[in-house]
From TrEMBL, chains A, B:
Residues bound to Mg(2+) 1: T57, D58, D135
Protein's recorded name: Thiamine-monophosphate kinase
Residues binding Mg(2+) 4: D42, S56, D87
Family label: Belongs to the thiamine-monophosphate kinase family.
Gene3D superfamilies from the UniProt entry: PurM-like C-terminal domain, PurM-like, N-terminal domain
Binding annotation for substrate: H65, E291, W343
Function (record text): Catalyzes the ATP-dependent phosphorylation of thiamine-monophosphate (TMP) to form thiamine-pyrophosphate (TPP), the active form of vitamin B1.
Gene Ontology molecular function: ATP binding; magnesium ion binding; thiamine-phosphate kinase activity
Length: 349, 349
């Protein structure tokens, strides 16, 4: 899914604001019966009938959340949608609609925005969500994308962060740390490129982790899997800021403690080998890395047989009473209190 | 409603992302039974039962949509909400919830964001909407606010842009051009201030139009009035970009033409006198000025007795068949085709 290096440049000024929205959204179709009216009026109109509506929103800022020097625009469009759908799935809900608002400076030609929207379109198609609105405007510098995702769920299936109970099992989907290590590789190649622009990087050995960073997938499949397995998690959150930070969110909201077992944390072999290469600790990366967009949830112990042996799910610990706090149980069986070392966008660089 | 010139400065870095959201949203209460869960989980949860959901989103960018040199932050927060609620009212719906996402650079201290949220809070309280979520992040430069407004309506009351019919009357609420002329006054004072920073501007004669620019009100009262009068407009839009551009939207969506009577366009005396002072034409300002956030709608002629004589509503024209196009009928009774001279944020400065 590489960016189309189209050399044509159409200035945004020529199209104007209304022309731009019409142009960029012309290929989007509406597929949900809950979408009564999408783009083209003052507001979208939705009908969720007897289901509950869930809604989440995220801002992605150039230079803070993404770097266009290695992030192809099509991937960026795709990832912007994933970040939001991930929040909907973390409620154990089904994503149905999104809105996309975009602020861009005049330095971007129309063709660049078409690439961005191609990624958004692919995400909508793959995940079966309707694009129902948004806003397009200029910015003085850089690009900013604001996505709002809307979903639906039966009330008794909605999973909050607050339902975990003592002795519940802590489960994670997929593996962790890949997105962060992919970013390390991309940052390194960017530095090499600055020194020697003719250098052709060989990213092949890192393809899994680079894809985890550039084209993450939200875990719609896990929500579907849980439904099939007839498991309703007692609490759930998506991993956007790192495992440690997300566990602390669940513990705080649910008023429980946690024992996380270091030797259970799922790491892909590429993450392990790249950590060795960068002299980084895999556990630390999983705890603090962020952007993996896996689902972290707790289940009643009685549900363990239903998920046991499933290759998509790993039990990594269990919830405890609140007095002991949230701890990592290391391979040496020592306890280390978990800290929210997740990403803080307000830190000075 | 002047900005509190608090001299304390707390850096955003100290609070971090989660602390910031908790801090800024602590005073917001939830008042709608349709809000099952607001801020504090991966997504908000809403329940609209048998009503339809309407949803709209807008981006406001520093240097494009607002200038902090004369826009107090509290007013900016208030206005950001108004811009969105206006879209919901333009559907003849009731606004119930908002989400607010914010990108700010480190140059803003916490106290500045508190001012901004004080304005958002006042708007939520005054218009009875629940704040249910959002995102807060840093930006490399300047401030950007993304607001999504959610509302509800009975299906048969929802008013689209597309329902206007030949011979329907064209009606506008309030008066036009004030926000644009207020901006002219503020821009002039800014230039004076640059030359002589000790100059104390006397804005008193312009207070109505300056307030139209800095603290616009969305016309919730008009939606309530229409309900009381038992009038369901055949089409409706809010005036954000200027009367001309909005009439063209209604005509295009409804596939009709329009005759707009210059001598019917409602202008406040302050707008007329300030236009004279700036040697500008009041009609042109109403047609192209923008940001008035009044409602523009069409009604069946049979409903005319219901609105006749209401001081909040002015009949300014009628819809025609599509062949004649959309025209301004001047005081001299000549026809001038309307053009979308509304604001284009992509124009080079």
């Amino acid at each position: 899914m590489l960016e189309d290096k189209n050399k044509e440049r159409t200035s945004l000024e020529k199209l104007g604001e209304f022309g731009l929205i019409d142009h960029l959204t012309q290929n989007f179709t509406l597929n949900h019966s809950s979408t009564l009216k999408g783009v083209g009026d003052d507001a979208a109109v939705l009908d969720f009938k007897n289901k509950k509506t869930v809604l989440s929103t995220d801002l992605l800022v150039e230079g803070v959340h993404f770097d266009l020097s290695y992030m192809p625009l099509k991937h960026l469009g795709y990832k912007s949608v994933m970040v939001n759908l991930s929040d909907i799935y973390a409620m154990n809900a089904k994503a149905t609609q999104i809105t996309v608002s975009l602020a861009v400076s005049n330095r971007f030609p129309l063709e660049a925005l078409e690439e961005l929207y191609a990624g958004i379109h692919l995400a909508c198609k793959t995940y079966n969500v309707d694009m129902i609105g948004g806003d397009t405007t200029s910015s003085k510098t850089g690009m900013l994308i604001s996505v709002t995702a809307i979903g639906e769920a039966e009330e008794d299936k909605i999973t909050y962060r607050s339902g975990a109970k003592e002795n519940d099992l802590l489960v994670v989907s997929g593996d962790l740390g890949g997105a962060y290590m992919g970013l390390q590789v991309l940052e390194r190649e960017k530095e090499v490129f600055k020194v020697n622009p003719n250098n052709q990087p060989d990213l092949e050995p890192y393809s899994y982790i680079v894809e985890r960073q550039l084209k993450p997938e939200a875990r719609k499949d896990i929500v579907e899997l849980l439904e099939k397995l007839e498991v309703i998690p007692t609490s759930m959150i998506d991993i956007s800021d790192g495992l440690s930070s997300e566990i602390l969110h669940l513990c705080k909201s649910s008023k429980v403690g946690c024992a996380l077992y270091e030797n259970k944390i799922p790491l892909d072999p590429t993450v392990i080998s790249t950590c060795e290469e960068f002299k980084m600790d895999g556990t630390m990366i999983a705890l603090s890395g962020g952007e993996d967009y896996e689902l972290l949830f707790t289940i009643d112990q009685a549900d363990f047989p239903k998920i046991k042996g499933n290759p998509n799910l790993t039990v990594i610990g269990h919830m405890t009473d609140t007095s002991g706090g949230a701890n990592l149980v290391t391979r040496a069986e020592t306890l280390i209190p978990l800290k929210a070392q997740g990403w803080n966008s307000f830190q000075e660089e």
